[in-house]
Amino acid sequence: MRKKSYLFIAGLLLILSLIACSNNNQDAAESDNSEEKESEERTLEHASGEVTIPEDPENILAPYMEDSLLALGEEPAAQWSIGEDVQDYLQPQLEDVPTIEWDLPLEETLNQDPDLIIFSSPSSIQNGSYEDYESIAPTYVFDGEVSADWRDQLTQMGEILNKQDEAEKVLADFDEKVEETKASVEDSIGDESAAFVWTMGEEFYIFEPTRYGAEVLYDEVGITQPEFVQDLEQEEQWNPVSMEKLGELDADHVFLIAEENEPGLEILDESSVWQSIPAVENDQVYTMNDPSHWTVDGVIAHEMTLDAVNEALTE
């Protein structure tokens, strides 16, 4: 009888021991899961304070920064628009993505049910306070100088989305494309100069060396600037250029950027002033009928510009 009692007590102690171990393991697992969850969320400083970024946000709103998002493999919940105008060059990727007004009206923003909102600068918050948007979803605000530099914007977007390696690779691939374009341009035109002229409506604009894709083409690809571009005064930069002034353009090559049937194209065709500049006389004007990527800063936009220039010069 005593032997049976000992066996019973021993069995009971074994069961209690197993239960205790199980509880300890469960507590440890729950602790590990809690720590893992905390590590998945990241708190970043930004232009308006601090924000905790959720892991793998799925519904992201980042108006006019969709170029950087797409380059990192992220599709926005809604894309930037002004009325019916969108970023045309991104439509192959964004064709089925709904639009949202550029200034993110609060009601429209709420309807998109975002889990992350990104503004390009404090001044881009137009329809309410930062706190209004933060109450909808975690909200990150770029420093305006960072978002204005497309390389810095892409790098910072990689930090926000925890895709730093992807951002580095995108930039490395772009630099490789620059080198390929540089070699192609050297073979095609050597040190002959080129200018980039944009016509919209009946007005004409010259890309100075720091404007959009021209900065990449002049500074990185190494295309020679004509004296006309070098000598542009500050007040002349990105202001309409008169036909008389345009007649001074001494470029060997001109990339003419315009939508098809733009009125400015007809004006140039009928202008004796335009017909007298070197590039026109030598039949070295290349019409670019997709201006949308020429007037935006972004890695996808600049890749398209490099491809367009390379194709035009090697035809």
List the helices and strands and how they pair.
Layout: H1 2-40, E1 42-46, E2 49-53, E3 60-61, H2 66-71, E4 79-81, H3 91-94, E5 99-101, H4 106-111, E6 116-119, H5 130-134, E7 139-141, H6 144-148, H7 150-160, H8 164-189, E8 194-200, E9 203-206, H9 212-221, H10 227-230, H11 243-246, E10 253-257, H12 263-269, H13 272-275, H14 278-281, E11 285-288, H15 299-314
Parallel strand pairs: 3-6, 4-5, 6-7, 8-10, 10-11
Antiparallel strand pairs: 1-2, 8-9
Helix pairs in contact: 7-8, 8-15, 9-15
Spatial strand order of the main sheet: 9-8-10-11
Reported by name, the CATH topology of the largest domain is Rossmann fold
Q: CATH homologous superfamily of the largest domain?
A: Nitrogenase molybdenum iron protein domain
The number of E-state strands comes to: 11
Question: Helical amount among residues, as a percent range?
Answer: 40-55%
Structural class, by secondary structure, is alpha/beta
Question: Over all CA atoms, what is the radius of gyration?
Answer: 29 Å
Task: Please indicate the count of domains.
Answer: 2
Shape: elongated
The whole-number mean of residue pLDDT values reads 90
Low-confidence stretches: 33-39
Through-space gap between termini: 103 Å
**Strand fraction band?**
5-15%
Number of helical elements: 15
